[in-house]
Amino acid sequence: MIGPIHEDIPSLTVDIVAHDARGRDVLLVKVTGTVLSPEVVSQFFEIMELLSPSTPFSMVVDLESIHIRRNRTDRPARRLETASILSCYEPEYGRKPIFHPYLQTLVNSWLHDLAYHWKSEYPPGSDELAELGLLEKLEGGTTEREVLIGEDSLR
């Protein structure tokens, strides 16, 4: 659990950074193997935006919810059900234990499907991400895992 936001937070390791087709950071993703309270989700969003202000989107994924936010706006985060999105990549989602490393892999697979349609022509969540303006930024892009963001990083 994270405590209150402080301006002295030097860095954070995010689980995934999605890049657009030109290699620019477009999405920071924090994945947790637990269910988070709305307050903790908000804190993760604040920290990611504070440490990487030029990245346009942030995502927080827990076992029940995928929260997606366009940074530097006052609009609330969009919420998707994790099971409905990721069951396309793991049909047993919700019926067997899912731990952090595997959840991270499933989210990464989903992002790759959104970028390249390797699994389905119309990946789950496409409409919602298109409404936010994120889907077109992901198309043709790549991902990177376990990335340090903030002043201690090269970002």
Q: Layout of helices and strands, plus pairs?
A:
Elements: E1 11-19, E2 25-31, H1 38-51, E3 57-61, E4 65-70, E5 78-81, H2 82-86, H3 100-116, H4 126-132, H5 135-138, E6 142-150
Parallel strand pairs: 2-3
Antiparallel strand pairs: 1-2, 1-6, 3-4, 4-5
Explain how this protein is built.
This protein is an alpha+beta fold. It has one domain (11-150). The chain has 5 helices and 6 strands, in the order ββαβββααααβ. It has a 6-stranded mixed sheet, sandwiched between helices. The model is unreliable at 1-6 (pLDDT under 50).
> How many distinct beta strands?
6
* Gyration radius, rounded: 15 Å
- Amount of helix: 25-40%
State the domain count: 1
Tell me briefly what this model is:
It is built from 5 helices and 6 strands.
List keywords for this structure.
155 residues, six-stranded mixed β-sheet, 6 strands, alpha+beta, globular, disordered N terminus
